Model the fold of this input.
Amino acid sequence: MSPRNAIDLTATITTPENIQFEYRIAGPFRRIPAFLVDLIVRIIAFLSIFFVVACSGIVQLFPFLSQFATVGIVLLLAYFLIDWFYGVFFETYWNGRTIGKWISKIQVISVDGRPISAYQATIRNFLRLADLAPMMSLGVLFANEATPFLFPTGLIAIVCMAMTNRFQRLGDLAAGTMVVVDERAWVPPKVKLEDPRVASLSELIPANFMMSRSMVRAVALYAERRMRMPVARRMELSAILAAPLMAQLGLRSDTSPDLFLCALYYREFVSKQISIGESTSIDAGIPISQTTPIKYATEPHPASQAPTPIASPDLEPSTKLPAGEYP
Done:
């Protein structure tokens, strides 16, 4: 992690599809409240089991044991299951969250950005006892009274988190996980467009022509994945995305929708050098219609100044996408 990321407490993850996500690392002041909430939830669950056992006739199922021994065995088993497998169960089946993490808006993920597995959840939760060490007697607080009760100091976890850029405790280091704020900032993929017609077409798009945030993301993902598609499929998908935009600009029907979407990508991410998260005016403007994602910052561009369409004769004409095949 670079020094800038260490200061900003962010981690940039690049997926195998070449899509980048920026995660905000969750610090101690977010993780401690989550831990306390989970502790309260475990205590409530344990007390609920205690009252159920006390009020039910479960002790009669073991006549060879005393009532006290039966209740003690059941509660000991319940304590073991709740304390050791509460985090494993929730983090495995709730995408790295527990009830406390959900309230604190944090989650556990792998260091490569993928959801954690059951193995990783087991490792990090079973090492929680080591992270809470060393234990300290309550007699330290009450010097005049001897008490057998111990409470965890968590010094091991604090030292490990202080020495790692991603605030990973011992369990996180062993499991290959990290705790992040439950939100992701999308970073557009970097795509190299070699067709010279893309830059030419992008210069003809009106300066007051703006797209919504969702459409900008769709164009960026299309530009990144288009070369992995067959030409026919590429034309089908590009026609669906570009049709309403080309109609609003008054482009001719023989204009390549694939080339038009590449021009939009070039205009938004290459020539203007802006990012999705940094643009504060991307949703501003007067909508042209309720069906198109395009918006104008001012009045629509006059028809007399409409951009000259650029056709792409080497690409196959668009065909109608069969029903049910659009991903």
